[in-house]
Amino acid sequence: MAAPRLFRPASRVLSSRLSTFAKRPAFAPLCAQSALRVRSYATEGGVKEVTVRDALNEALAEELEGNEKTFILGEEVAQYNGAYKVTRGLLDRFGPKRVIDTPITEAGFTGLAVGAALAGLHPICEFMTFNFAMQSIDQIINSAAKTHYMSGGIQPCNITFRGPNGFAAGVAAQHSQDYSAWYGSIPGLKVVSPWSSEDAKGLLKAAIRDPNPVVVLENELMYGQAFPMSEAAQKSDFVLPIGKAKIERAGKDLTIVSLSRCVGQSLTAAAELKQKYGVDAEVINLRSIKPLDVETIIASLKKTGRLMVVESGYPMFGVASEILALSMEYGFDYLTAPAVRVTGAEVPTPYALGLENMSFPQEDTIVTQAAKLLRV
Amino acid sequence: MSSKAILQRSWRATCRSPRMGAPKPTYAPRRWSGSISQRPGSDRVLFPGAVNSKFTTDMSFLKASDLPAIPTYRVIDSDGELVDNSRAPPDVSDEEVLTWYKNMLSVSIMDVVMFEAQRQGRLSFYMVSAGEEGIAVASAAALTPDDVVFAQYREAGVFQQRGYTLKNFMGQLFANCNDTGKGRNMPVHYGQNYPRIHTISSPLATQIPHAAGAAYALKMQDLQNPNRERRIVACYFGEGAASEGDFHAALNIAATRSCPVVFVCRNNGFAISTPTLEQYRGDGIASRGVGYGIDTIRVDGNDVFAVNEAMKEARRLALTDGGRPVLIEAMSYRVSHHSTSDDSFAYRARVEVEDWKRRDNPIIRLRKWLENKGLWNDELEQETRDSMRKAVLKEFSEAEREKKPPLREAFADVYEELTEEAQAQMKELKRILETYPDEYDLRPYKDGVKGLD
């Protein structure tokens, strides 16, 4: 784990007796550094426009190249180059032993991947979408997440589960679910969710290298989107720490915490808030859902006094609910207004375009809710 | 010990505990009388797990590759001629065969139009069933309207044969007020109340155990009411879905609970891009039915008569002895792409597809049969195709312009009853719409603001 973590009150009682509680580090310098770099189309030498799809592809290729224990398996990943072309060219480059097409049996190939991980390999298991991972969720949660613990640490489980998560365009109830909260609630799993191309590459590489089971929740709607990628991020040793959020836009009036595709929407909303109301919203890209970078969120909240969380999952028992609870536990005295959630609607995702749009946060939803919160 | 075994043990312990009294007599004989002890001198296995197996001193492994492949039942050949002239011609009236043919044609014409419409961005998704119309139409023709169907997503022909109209199809595809799914489902996720076809479910193979359960329910209902016409469940899926765990669980539970269900596997050679060679290594899906103790047949899916006869017989078998499952594996070739999200020429040769298209497909084969019998000709073909295409395009453009479902449907059906929250939200929405009528254009919605009542 990257930074010293804040503990939940219940576990703090326990940990304070066992070890000295890690002091909260100084937050301010961390925040200042990374403000607003991604969206500006920087022209300085070496920056390149890369789509999220290509960034993921690059990460996979580099890790397959660098570590012979890795292999990728899933439906359509080899011959067909992946349902969303994320694994394009990998079969040609690494051959059928490292890039494996499976029968349509999620329970089968997930179980096989977990077994291979327990035996010491580092499989990368692709789901055509995480909705289909429901067929094999027992393997992910009951086997991958728990075996290291249950075996007394004998059995490693260095496995990466990846694939698109959340809603896409017009795929309705059974293909649109956001699993961030599901996997985020499981001890033993790490969960990351990239937004930009740098996120995608750095987090996927970190996930593959991490010795634990890591769930990488990508987003289908982001695959084709291009982002500038710094020279450092283009290198094959570029890895992002799991458990660190990134401040995408610095601000002083409101903290917007978001993840995956909603980060982009939040940034657009923040720009509109500035233009319309002259308020400066700080936008935090979570990057990692578990472990959660509570420090960054609380530090920002202390600065702005207001918190809004934007996500596309369901409203109840979600990532946003969790962050609101944490803000109450660690930042209550700094809040000048009740924190709010902007989430997906409490309804199985409908197909019809009008209904679908109403089921998920849109940019104007974020702006309206933020304006309400700020009373502007 | 597995957790199931622990549960079972504790359940038994509870049942036998003196405080609970004697175990219920209805369960006792079923559970405990089956224990078989090994008798001395027996030449057969008397272990509980395999009865009637002879002992042998020859240690040999069964090799799947040594067993002959299960034959494929066929009535007419690819020239539309009866294969076995010694048998009676198919027991179907000319009018009925013509209906089948027109239903197949209608589906295939709708497919072409809708595939193009998706390419133009007028709907998000579509799935065609080219090459498999015969399996769907001819098998559905063997069902009674009271039979229940669970389909996968390539069975438009089943819907067509069971009375689903072009208006129904288009209503669903365009999510308008004629959509029984009220605009909530992806395209091709049709559903119909009567004759009942359960709404298509996207996750692969989940319908197979559901079908076993529904068949069990029908069996129970028929036991309670012996006077009513007996019904079966027909369950459709592809050979790719048969790789999912649900398939295996379903066949086993259907066999052990003796459920009157006919499983129809459309083996079309491809699961999206995965050819059957990488999907499984046995003798197709049919060999698995035998393994689960299920009566099984393999048929030529391009031969509507073979499919129909097999389905009729399967239906009869499924209702004998209080009910039992039957498996039909219908062989075909998926001429189309998997869906509009797929370009199949990335993984198979175009020439192979063209070859199949020309050489054999259910529509052409039936057309040859009809022409041989003098029931069909080029003129009729052209006429029918033109009028069908017109009908499809008419319903298409009407469906696009049709009103959307009433506003209340945006809130309804998440639960059986509207939740208090949803009621409050509807009330609030109504208040806003009535207070600011100029701000909201409600004309596209059926019944306008009254649609909230």
From TrEMBL, chain A:
GO cellular component: mitochondrion
Reactions performed catalytically: N(6)-[(R)-lipoyl]-L-lysyl-[protein] + pyruvate + H(+) = N(6)-[(R)-S(8)-acetyldihydrolipoyl]-L-lysyl-[protein] + CO2
Cofactor: thiamine diphosphate
Pfam families per UniProt: Transket_pyr (PF02779), Transketolase_C (PF02780)
Coiled-coil segments on the chain, per record: none
Domain Transketolase-like pyrimidine-binding: 50-225
GO BP terms in the entry: pyruvate decarboxylation to acetyl-CoA
EC number: 1.2.4.1
Principal localisation: mitochondrion
Alphabetically ordered keywords of this record: Metal-binding, Mitochondrion, Oxidoreductase, Potassium, Pyruvate, Thiamine pyrophosphate, Transit peptide
Location relative to the cell: Mitochondrion
GO molecular function list: metal ion binding; pyruvate dehydrogenase (acetyl-transferring) activity
Role of this protein: The pyruvate dehydrogenase complex catalyzes the overall conversion of pyruvate to acetyl-CoA and CO2.
The protein's name in its UniProt record: Pyruvate dehydrogenase E1 component subunit beta
Automatic annotation (TrEMBL), chain B:
A GO molecular function held by the record: branched-chain 2-oxo acid dehydrogenase activity
Cofactor entry: thiamine diphosphate
Keyword Mitochondrion appears in the UniProt entry: yes
Compartment annotation: Mitochondrion matrix
Keyword Transmembrane helix: no
Enzyme Commission number(s): 1.2.4.4
GO annotations of cellular component type: mitochondrial matrix
Reaction equations catalysed: N(6)-[(R)-lipoyl]-L-lysyl-[protein] + 3-methyl-2-oxobutanoate + H(+) = N(6)-[(R)-S(8)-2-methylpropanoyldihydrolipoyl]-L-lysyl-[protein] + CO2
Domain Dehydrogenase E1 component: 101-406
Coiled coil start-end: 408-435
Major location category of this protein: mitochondrion
One example of a Gene Ontology biological process annotation: branched-chain amino acid catabolic process
Keywords (A to Z) from UniProt: Coiled coil, Metal-binding, Mitochondrion, Oxidoreductase, Potassium, Thiamine pyrophosphate, Transit peptide
Classification via SUPFAM superfamilies: Thiamin diphosphate-binding fold (THDP-binding)
Family as reported in the entry's similarity comment: Belongs to the BCKDHA family.
Function: The branched-chain alpha-keto dehydrogenase complex catalyzes the overall conversion of alpha-keto acids to acyl-CoA and CO(2). It contains multiple copies of three enzymatic components: branched-chain alpha-keto acid decarboxylase (E1), lipoamide acyltransferase (E2) and lipoamide dehydrogenase (E3).
Protein name per the record: 2-oxoisovalerate dehydrogenase subunit alpha
